[in-house]
Sequence to fold (229 residues):
Amino acid sequence: QVQLVQSGAEVKKPGASVKVSCKASGFTFTSYHIHWVRQAPGQGPEWMTIMMAGGGSTKYARKFQGRVTLTRDTSTSTAYMELSSLTSEDTAVYYCAAERPNDHYMDVWGKGTTVTVSS
Amino acid sequence: QSALTQPPSVSGSPGQSVTISCTGTSSDVGSYDRVSWYQQPPGTAPKLMIYDVSYRPSGVPDRFSGSKSGNTASLTISGLQTEDESDYYCSSITSSGTYVFGTGTKVTVL
Fold:
């Protein structure tokens, strides 16, 4: 069964960092692009970044450049997204989603990880 | 990159048709036939409903259809059913190789 399993909810203080994991199963992890999308309460999805299949090159939405770090562990088929310098505006559900290269759509989604930033 | 513009809400009675618009620019929707649509019931992850403007993934009912003209894409739900009540979002690739989502539309079945 093709699925992405994300790590559990996090509560962080302003200024801290959070690292969310996304474990793939049922498909060849390195053959898919992995997107990260977040959704603040009551808002629509916001695309953040992508790690490409194969060599793992990355691309970021301008507003997240310099604050997001993507890594992956191919031995465990797990992708990681770390967001630093958190503020209350980063409170959101963070999703990972998979794309077959050149499809340009996300057809497998994780269930989401709730990140709450509060002092 | 600004979000694609969608109407906040549309509604219809069971059996009727509703259409959701998604307006972008010549740097995204207007330049690529890579518009996708997602359905998102409350508290769940988005689900792909349409890709490449008008193609349905396996398992998506054929009452869902998509189209595009210029900088505006549209999702039509024909023969509206109660289970179609949800939030819907469009998405497109952009000229910089990033992605952008729409502002979202709540579909209400009366």
